[in-house]
Amino acid sequence: MSQKIKEQVKQLLADKKIKGFLGLREENGHVMPYLFCDPQELDSLSVGDWKKPGDARYPLNQILIQLTMAYPNETFGVLVRGCDERGLRELLKWKQLEEGKVIPIGMGCPDELAKACECEKPFPDCQIDGPKGEGATSQRLSKIEAMALEERFQYWLKEFDRCIKCYGCRNICPMCFCNECSLEEELLVEKGDIPPDNPTFHLVRAMHMVGRCIDCGLCEEACPAEIPLRTLYKKMTEVVAEEFGYKTGYSIEEKSPLNLIEVK
Amino acid sequence: MEFKTVLTTCPYCGCGCGLLLEVLDGKVIGTLPSKTSPVNEGKLCIKGWSVHEFIHHPARLTRPLVRRENELKEASWEEALDFTVRRLREIREKYGPESIGVLTSAKCTNEENYLLQKFTRAVLGTNNIDHCARL
User: How many Å lie between the alpha carbon of A40 and the closest alpha carbon of chain B?
Assistant: First the structure.
């Protein structure tokens, strides 16, 4: 599937339009992030499909921020799926990346992955490879919403109760870029408590994902306690879309809901 | 410019989670859980997530220290090893092998841990050996 991506990256490197291409490579049976600076290395390029489509995805945009901080004058290519492209737009808006310094190389996700993610738009606009699948609505969310309010609250309390406070959801998040994190603030989150304040800890994080969460699902995949974080953030994103008319990551010009001061 | 991720095993406990060290120009700048490791399948605990923090930490010991006049001072390996041998021998002769205990580390390899238990049992002559992963 990655032939067109390889060709485009080769061209960009040959034309010196990018210093390197941040993607994934397969090495000794493992898939891992890698910066391709030499076109000859592209044979080992992986798009993050290992045993199943998209089961070896990594937060490439998060690594990209670190690369551009170390090399602010260079331009990089980066492998993006639909969610990553939405992420790039928000990161540009939040000034974590500089426009013109990033060239996204897009691939669409196969149906199997799009369905597993219940992804609204499983392909990027800059797509050059892969299928252009159909979007889906979240069945998992509807299932939880069908519960009565008290039952739903109890459901979430029980889920959050398993949290071992590994901070994995925050650490892997390509949209978590704050230097100071509220979840490490003793006034908000008591130190040494496991599970952390329930439900405050997870609801604080959900609130901070407003205008940021692009539904990549890496948080849920990284959670050792299998808390359905993605479903939680999907709901938050839905509220933001309904109440503020803001679709996270769909437009680079649209103002973030946190910039609005109108009272409804 | 070189950026790569290096697959390694978490040095903290006996689970052996696979993790990826993010290496930019020879410096470790971050940790990611390995998605392809059959042990942890893309998940880590808080200790694993923080592995990169101690690698280049300024407080990390990079040379042996020997206490002289109640103060830890940098020493050569030869000097430190000589001192250790002399004191272990003195303590063993005076109080017996059971007066010595050895703690080894999860940050070593299996082979290093094996060597240390062998040294403790066969050379020092005591079973007083334990490992930080059991604490």
Answer: 15
